[in-house]
């Protein structure tokens, strides 16, 4: 498994990954608009505080992706890293894809001056697996996400 940086040429594959993640998540009941991903793609390519890493197999198939960024805390000049997506296709779960994506994201966050990682699992996809995965990387739970439809 190899981790590479996202490029404009990867957009179509990222839409497919987004569709798969959306369909599997507790957010599947909401619309999926590929053009929203195009706007995010521009940010990923132009803003140095945002990043996307792709996990690819030896034959270059897309196994998963990480999307995130760094920002200042609202109360400080100190910076933290956040995730928007850490998703691995079901057939690649149990491979090194997720671990490699996360390790790469952590190293990138350090280069952007982050002093803390604030990652989570908010899609309802395998929350117990996600908890064990993040704890295995030294993360501690710092809260709970509450949702309510209106």
Give a quick summary of the entry.
The chain is an alpha+beta fold and 150 residues long. The protein is built from 4 helices and 5 strands; from the N terminus they run βααβββαβα.
Strand tally is 5
Question: Structural class from helices and strands?
Answer: alpha+beta
Report the total helices: 4
Shape: globular
- Order of strands, main sheet, comes to 1-2-3-4-5
Sketch the major β-sheet.
5 strands, mixed
| Percent range for β-strand residues | 15-25%
Gap between N and C termini, in Å? 41 Å
Order of helices and strands: EHHEEEHEH
Q: Portion of residues in helices? A: 25-40%
Low-confidence stretches: none
Radius of gyration: 15 Å
Mean pLDDT: 94
Keywords:
150 residues, alpha+beta, five-stranded mixed sheet
What's the helix and strand layout?
Blueprint: E1 2-5, H1 11-24, H2 34-46, E2 50-56, E3 62-72, E4 79-88, H3 97-111, E5 114-118, H4 127-136
Parallel strand pairs: 4-5
Antiparallel strand pairs: 1-2, 2-3, 3-4
Helix pairs in contact: 1-2
Can you tell me about this structure?
A 5-stranded mixed sheet has the order 1-2-3-4-5, sandwiched between helices. The chain has helices at 11-24, 34-46, 97-111, 127-136, and strands spanning 2-5, 50-56, 62-72, 79-88, 114-118. A hairpin with a 5-residue loop joins β2 and β3 (62-72). Helices cover 35% and strands 25% of the residues. The chain is built from 4 helices and 5 strands; from the N terminus they run βααβββαβα. The protein is globular and about 40 Å long. With 150 residues, it is an alpha+beta fold.
